[in-house]
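call fold(seq) -> tokens
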Amino acid sequence: MKWHREPLIHFLAIGALLFSVYLWLNDPYETFGPMAYAAGQVYVQAVAAAQKKGKVTRAAILKELNTGKFKTLIGDFSFDENGMLDILHIAIYRVENGKWQIKYRTDRKATTLTKVE
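ret:
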């Protein structure tokens, strides 16, 4: 039997996503819940984009992560040439009616804080 690493990586990533969703559903106000959920959303979108273009491999997923644009709970973004989010903001969230809401957000350089309406 030949060992394939890519399916194992996908299995572990999906397991981590499901575990973060489980934690989020059982403790919806956990501090890093939105970011963990967004990371899962990015991974799922990268895998789906790689699948649309052909074979789902580690290289194909990495290419999608490096070039794709992603829609997530914390906003739409892509990654820059250094692997940083192109919407690098510091945000203040508040739970309202059981959902995370962004109340304030900084600019890209984190020099000003703006209220989000």
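Confidence is low (pLDDT under 50) at residues 1-5.
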